[in-house]
Design a protein that fits this description.
Helix content is about 30%, strand content about 25%. The protein has eight helices and 15 strands. A hairpin with a 5-residue loop joins strand 8 and strand 9. The protein starts with 5 loop residues before the first strand and ends with a helix. Bound molecules: 4'-deoxy-4'-aminopyridoxal-5'-phosphate.
């Protein structure tokens, strides 16, 4: 394990691999908490306001108080990036329910715990980025929104981890999750787009996708390029017969998809992917 990274907790910065929390934190006991993953380029966090908004929305949705203002969070993030000594990297923000009794009731937790980590980013395999990722459709379904709203970016990723295990066992790069109705939702840690007849389509959050920050940026960039970009429910057939397909996410950025369940995509990397990846790189450079 590389000895990089720093962690901010309770006002103190320490080496990441020395940072510890008590075993009675409900984030550990129950996955009770929310998080964000944010990239920084040249020391500048990308789309920080959007990430903080999503963190705040997720925290409110689970009745978890986020007592730090955006200014305070921005200051802590800046401090953590500076202490990491990294120019480009990844921030992980966690807000847990904090320490409590062994029972599930969050009322035993007096104080939420904020953790900010800055570290190097584990890069996507350059070969996958160039040649495209292989995907499978997992048999694990995305939890229904009336069970857990997909817009809550919670610390509980077991549903996605089960899908990811399926991908690993199939020798694929990533798994896609369908919802209970068989509509496409997203990958285990990224959103999905397809291109059909020059139009860019992505599943709506109401079908079970996280409201990805990269997803929103890619839709804005597409519109700037004159590419029609829409949220639309998608079926497995839509995936198999798409002209192009790609994944988006903070860590992933944009990754073209080569095949889904062994069906080769129409084009990979496709023309629309190429234009959007270039526009994304331009956006990051202007930070
Ligand atoms: N879906 C899931 C389940 C994720 O974990 C992520 C990564 N945060 C994404 C989509 C992509 O979202 P974003 O572009 O905001 O990183």
């Amino acid at each position: 394990m590389a000895n990089t990274g720093v962690c901010w907790m309770e006002g103190k910065l320490q080496p990441l691999r020395e940072a510890r929390i008590p075993v009675i934190d409900h984030g550990l006991l129950y996955g009770d908490g929310v998080f964000e993953g944010i990239r920084f380029y040249g020391g500048q966090p990308l789309l920080l306001a959007e990430h903080l908004r999503r963190l705040r929305d997720s925290a409110r949705a689970i009745a978890l108080a986020l007592r730090w203002s955006d200014e305070e969070l921005t200051g802590i993030i800046g401090q953590t990036i500076a202490a990491s000594g990294l120019s480009d990297g990844y921030i992980r923000l966690l807000l847990t329910r904090g320490d409590g009794a062994l029972g599930i009731d969050p009322r035993s937790c007096a104080e939420p715990r904020l953790i900010v980590i800055a570290d190097e980013l584990q890069m996507v395999d350059p070969q996958v980025r160039e040649q495209g990722a292989t995907l499978i459709i997992a048999s694990t379904r995305r939890l229904p929104p009336d069970g857990l709203d997909p817009r809550i970016k919670s610390l509980n990723y077991l549903n996605h981890i089960l899908a990811r295990i399926e991908a690993n066992q199939a020798g694929a790069d990533e798994a896609l999750l369908l919802n209970a109705l068989g509509r496409v939702t997203e990958g285990s840690a990224d959103n999905l787009f397809i291109v059909r007849d020059g139009r860019l389509l992505t599943p709506p959050t109401s079908d079970g996708a996280l409201a990805g920050i990269t997803r929103a940026l890619v839709m804005d960039l597409a519109r700037e390029l004159g590419i029609e970009a829409l949220e639309q429910s998608l079926t497995v057939f839509d995936l198999y017969s798409a002209d192009e397909c790609f994944l988006t996410g903070t860590a992933a950025e944009l990754i073209p998809v080569r095949s889904i369940d062994g069906r080769a995509m129409g084009d990979c990397p496709g023309e629309v992917y190429r234009r959007l990846a270039e526009a994304f790189a331009g956006f990051v450079q202007r930070l």
